[in-house]
Specification:
Layout: H1 8-27, H2 50-53, H3 55-70, E1 72-73, H4 83-89, E2 100-101, E3 104-105, H5 111-127, E4 135-138, H6 144-155, E5 161-163, H7 186-189, E6 192-193, H8 207-217, E7 221-225, H9 235-243, E8 248-252, H10 257-261, E9 274-278, E10 289-294, E11 297-300, E12 306-308, H11 312-323, H12 329-342, H13 345-367, E13 371-372, E14 381-385, H14 393-402, E15 405-406, E16 408-410, E17 423-427, H15 429-433, H16 438-458, H17 466-475, H18 477-494
Parallel strand pairs: 1-15, 5-6, 5-7, 7-8, 8-9
Antiparallel strand pairs: 2-3, 4-10, 9-10, 11-12, 13-14, 14-17, 16-17
Helix pairs in contact: 4-12, 5-12, 6-11, 8-9, 13-16, 14-16, 14-17, 16-18
The structure holds D-serine (DSN).
């Protein structure tokens, strides 16, 4: 068979031209625009800046940037990603369809994307200190929810049995959430879900009850993952329970993936078969998802037979073409950048500070008389139980938002209704990214305390519903004046701290 007749000199010449264009782009300092204006004749070409092309959207972005800079962001699942990650998201990578996997794409023009995806996979293995012979990675899930759905689809199939931490007890929607009246998450519609709970007295996961219930339910998969639980998970105990049923153990480390990378919390990779995650929480990357799956020996039977893992192909096929089309390769590039950043000593220090700051918040809140669920925290989040203060989570969230302290209402163990949550969840990952120190976090707690006290003070001024409360807050001039004083204090404080990713 004859070789394709491309002369080396022609290839060299193409490469030289491309290199020149790359150098010019780098020199212009912008990976996102090429500085061109409208095409000849004034027809639209697409190179105007957003502010010119769509001032309405540009203005919304400016307002949101102001909000992020002037406020105190304490949503436990949020963070500020780096400028380098933001550059990938606004890059030409977003233009390309790339269905398939490295070496097996369904479209032409994907030669650079194989290099990109393989680099992202390699960095994921390095960031979590994984041997590629034992762990494979899929970096294509659009986020954590599709990642979890893909794993269930691949490994247990329709009506397979899952056990996850109940949402009101600190689990996630995609761990099979349903209520007595309704199947809420598709993971409870398409799979059979039996949740496990925390002990309402301690707030800690009731592992004994999980073990007992598993004996009745015989799960095919147990999910060790949280969205509002502040303690280290006992992965070894989860493993033991899963093994009693030959079940897979999946960790959803979305909240703590940055902390796992930095080795400052328990490591799910030591005991799990599958680990899923989002990439934008403590990991500080772009909004995306990732699945790690075991390779090699699964176990050895009593008769000596070796059982090998066979989960890589089903998981990859469930992600694409099972549930997704083309991966968002600009996000994959951002994940690769974020994973590289986690391997810097600065990131390890950052992750340690995130936990220290959460513990400082707990200590100060306790000093001020608040109750913390489980009594403290081992990670980036804490849950304040407002029942002793007799003021509702939703009202406090509203007043705190009005004074530019952003957090979310959350159920506490033993809450009777998820619609009337009696707690507030706080996380320290985002503000630690803005370089707030332990001392600054004490000041943040003072603002929270003032917001909660103001809520309690003004609550009697209206009827019992949240709607009435909101109307009263919006119309009562004295209340507005008090909110304004507090908001200005918070914003003067918050504005001093730089916002990563922006000059
Ligand atoms: N919604 C996220 C959280 O706030 O925990 C999890 O996906």
């Amino acid at each position: 068979m004859s070789q394709v007749s491309v002369q080396p000199s022609a290839v060299d010449s193409t490469n030289a031209k491309r290199q020149k264009l790359c150098d010019e782009t780098k020199q212009s300092g912008s990976m996102t625009t090429n500085g061109q204006t409208n095409g000849a004749g004034g027809e639209w070409f697409g190179s105007e800046p957003l502010a010119t092309n769509d001032p309405a959207i540009a203005e919304i972005i400016v307002k949101e940037k102001q909000r992020q800079k002037c406020g105190l962001e304490l949503i436990a699942s949020e963070n500020f990603t780096s400028r380098a990650v933001l550059e990938t998201l606004g890059s030409c990578l977003q233009n390309k369809y790339c269905e398939g996997y490295p070496g097996k794409r369904y479209y032409g023009g994907t030669q650079h994307f194989d290099e990109l995806e393989n680099l992202c996979i390699k960095r994921a293995q390095e960031a979590y200190r994984l041997d590629p012979a034992e762990w494979g990675v899929n970096v294509q899930p659009y986020s954590g929810s599709p990642a979890n759905f893909a794993v269930y689809t691949a490994l247990i199939g329709p009506h397979g049995r899952i056990m996850g931490l109940d949402l009101p007890d600190g689990g996630h929607l995609t761990h099979g959430f349903m209520t007595s009246k309704k199947k809420i998450s598709a993971t409870s519609m398409y799979f059979e879900s039996m949740p496990y709970k925390v002990d309402p007295a301690t707030g800690l996961i009731d592992m004994d009850r999980l073990e007992e219930n598993a004996k009745l339910f015989h799960p095919q998969m147990i999910i060790a993952g949280i969205s509002c639980y502040s303690r280290n998970l006992d992965y070894a105990r989860f493993r033991k329970i899963a093994d009693q049923h030959g079940a897979y153990l999946m960790a959803d480390m979305a909240h703590i993936s940055g902390l796992v990378a930095a080795e400052v919390v328990n490591n799910p990779f030591e005991h799990c078969d599958i680990v899923t995650s989002t990439t934008h929480k403590t990991l500080r990357g772009p909004r995306s998802g990732i699945i790690f799956f075991r390779r090699g020996l699964r176990n050895t039977l009593k008769n000596g037979t070796q059982v090998m893992y066979d989960i890589e192909r089903p998981i990859n096929e469930a992600v694409f073409p099972g549930l997704q089309g083309g991966p968002h390769m600009h996000a994959v590039a951002g994940v690769a950048v974020a994973l590289k950043q986690t391997m810097n000593p600065e990131f390890k220090q950052y992750a340690a500070n995130v936990i220290q700051n959460a513990q400082v918040m707990c200590k100060k809140l306790v000093e001020l008389g608040y109750k913390i669920v489980t009594g403290g925290t081992d990670n980036h989040l804490l849950l304040v139980d407002l029942r002793p203060t007799q003021v509702g989570g939703a009202r406090c969230e509203k007043i705190l938002e009005d004074i530019s302290v952003v957090c979310n209402k959350n159920t506490c163990p033993g809450d009777l209704s998820a619609l009337k949550p009696s707690g507030l969840r706080f996380g320290t990952a985002a503000l630690t990214s803005r370089n707030l120190t332990a001392e600054d976090f004490e000041k943040v707690v003072d603002f929270i305390d003032k917001g909660i006290k103001l809520t309690k003070e003004i609550e009697p001024l209206c009827g019992p519903t949240l709607k009435e409360f909101r109307e009263m807050v919006a119309t009562n001039k004295e209340v507005q004046a008090k909110i304004t004083v507090l908001r200005e204090e918070v914003e003067d404080f918050a504005s001093k701290f730089p916002l990563p990713g922006f000059q």
